[in-house]
Design a protein that fits this description.
210 residues, alpha+beta, 4-stranded antiparallel beta sheet, 8 strands, disordered N terminus
């Protein structure tokens, strides 16, 4: 397949993914499945180098949690209720896997309030599920740039976690996220048609973690 055709398919996939509507009037707990999104931290830090906890501390992060998003089979609920802010104790518990206080609070307001869970239970779901996922050895805080492909990233994750259903997301030629689908009991489940790979380039670059 030509590079031009590959780009065209990726752009179409991205447009379809981004076109899924958010529903601000969603009801807490009324959704079809969860999307657990893992961010490749080195890419985030290349874009937002001033993020002190994640990008300027002594710890070098690889995959971290971006969020746990309730999904409809088409679209997703958004900001389902106005509840109290995330308690500071919960924020501190989550920093090892979501190293951004601002992100933790944002994810609860936008997505967690649609889960139907209490704030502590929602973040426990995130932390406990993340701990069950085996990050492929090749991607465990690499000190050098990795040149790969979306297909290879998918294969590596499936070899380490045979039951997962996932999609790989890039920004240009750089890996941005891996998105994993779970049912409400946090068991791997099939993703809806709107959750698919979108990497504009056939070759994917993973920035080094150190």
């Amino acid at each position: 397949m030509s590079y031009t055709k590959t780009i065209g398919k990726a752009v179409i996939a991205l447009m379809l993914a981004l076109s899924l509507p958010a529903y601000a009037d969603g009801q807490p707990g009324k959704f079809d499945y969860y999307l657990l999104t893992l961010s490749w931290s080195p890419e985030h830090c290349a874009e937002v180098p001033g993020d002190k906890i994640q990008c300027e501390g002594e710890k070098h992060y690889g995959f971290v949690v971006h969020g746990l998003w309730p999904q409809y089979n088409k679209g997703y609920p958004d900001s389902c209720s106005t509840t109290p802010a995330v308690p500071e104790a919960v924020v501190q518990e989550m920093l090892p896997v979501m190293p951004s206080e601002k992100l933790i609070r944002h994810e609860w307001e936008k997505h967690g309030t649609c889960s139907g869970e209490k704030v502590g239970d929602y973040f426990n779901l995130i932390r406990n599920t993340f701990q069950t996922i085996k990050i492929p050895d090749a991607y465990a805080n690499p000190s050098h740039q990795i040149n790969t492909s979306a297909a290879s990233i998918r294969q590596q994750f499936l070899e380490a976690n045979p039951n997962l259903h996932l999609a790989v997301a890039c920004k240009g030629e750089y890996l941005q996220e891996v998105r994993l689908c779970f049912d409400k009991e946090m068991r791997p489940t099939a993703c809806s048609s709107g959750v698919r790979d979108y990497c504009p380039a056939s070759d994917v670059i993973m920035r080094p973690a150190k």
